[in-house]
Write a structure and sequence with these properties.
about 350 residues, D-amino Acid Aminotransferase, Chain A, domain 1, 19 strands, OB fold (Dihydrolipoamide Acetyltransferase, E2P), 5 helices, alpha+beta, 2 domains
Amino acid sequence: MTKPPGKPSQPLLGDVDTPLRSKPRRRRDPAQPQFSLDPMPARIDPCLALLKPRPPKGPQWAFEVKWDGYRLAVHIEPSGVRILTRGGHDWTHRFPAIAAEAAQLGAATAILDGEAVVLDDQGRSDFGKLQQSLGGRGGNLNSGASVLMAFDLLYFDGHDLAKTELSTRRHLLESLIAPGRESAIRLSEDVDADGEQLLRVACEHGLEGIIAKDRNSPYRSGRLGDWVKIKCIQSDGFLIIGYEKSTASFGGIGRLLLAARKGGELIYVGGVGTGFNERSAADLRKQMDKLTIGKPAVDTGRKRNAVFVEPMLVAEIEYRAWTHDGKLRHASYKGLRDKADEASVYELE
C-alpha cells in the first residue's frame, strides 16, 4: 500500500507567487573608513646594511645574527611563488624547497626579505656549501639544502608595509613564521642583548658577525644606515684581475690577483692563495680561461708566470687586516659571487 503524499512544505519566503528579493542595502556611512588594497610591487630594491667597526648603542636598536648567503625576496602571489635575487633575477627554480614552503605559509599575498643559506653542523651559514649546492658561479643546480632565514616582511595580504616601522613589520612576520620553526623557511630571530656582548659571543662561536636595525625605521632601499653590520672577520667582494700559475696547486692556481674600487678606477690590493679545494679551483679556472687578456687591467707590479683576466669576476674574500701599503693580510678565498647576486666590490676610501 503506497503512502499518501504529504502536505506541501511551506515556501521559504511566504507566498510562492511573490518574487524573491533581498533586503534593501543601507547607504554607506561616509565616516566609515575604507580599507583599500595596495598594489603588490613587482620588485623592491633591498635595504642594505652599512659596515661599522662596532655596534651602535641605544634602545632603538635590535640585533640579529649576520647570515652569509644569497639575499632573496620571496613573492607569494595568487598566481604562485616567485623568488628574486638581489639583482632582480628569477631564481624560483633554484630554490625549490623554499618555494614549496612559501606556498604553504597561509598568506594570500606577501613579500619576504631574507637570506638563503646552507647551514653546517653547528647551525652556522657556510657560503662555500651554498655555492656548491648551486653548482658554482653560473651553475644551474637546484639547492634543495638551502633554507631561507627570513628577517623582514615588506607586503602582507594586500598591504604595503614598506613605510611601516620595523617593530610592526617584525610583529607581523612572527605571526607568519613562528620562532623556532624548523623548515625551509625560518625566522631570523632578533636577540635581546647588548650589542657589544652579542658581537663577542658571535665571534666566539665562529659566526660572521651581527646586524643592528633601527626598530623605528621604515624599509628604505639602499645603504642608508637604518641597518648596520658589524663583522667578526672581514669578508668582502674583490675583482679578480689574474692569477699566478702553479703546477702544485689545485687548478694550477697558485695565487689570485685582486683589485678593489677607488672612485672610478681599480686598485691592486694583493692576492690570495688559500681557501681553494679541487672542485672550487676547477670551476674558478674554467671561468677565468674565458676572460684571459694580454695585459693587466690594473698595475700589479712585476709578476712572474702570471695570467691576466678581464675584471669581471667578483670573489668573496675573507681577510684579517690590511698591510701598511694597502694589501690584504691573511686572505682566504670563499667563492665566486654570481652575477644575479649583484655583489658589491670593496670601495677604498
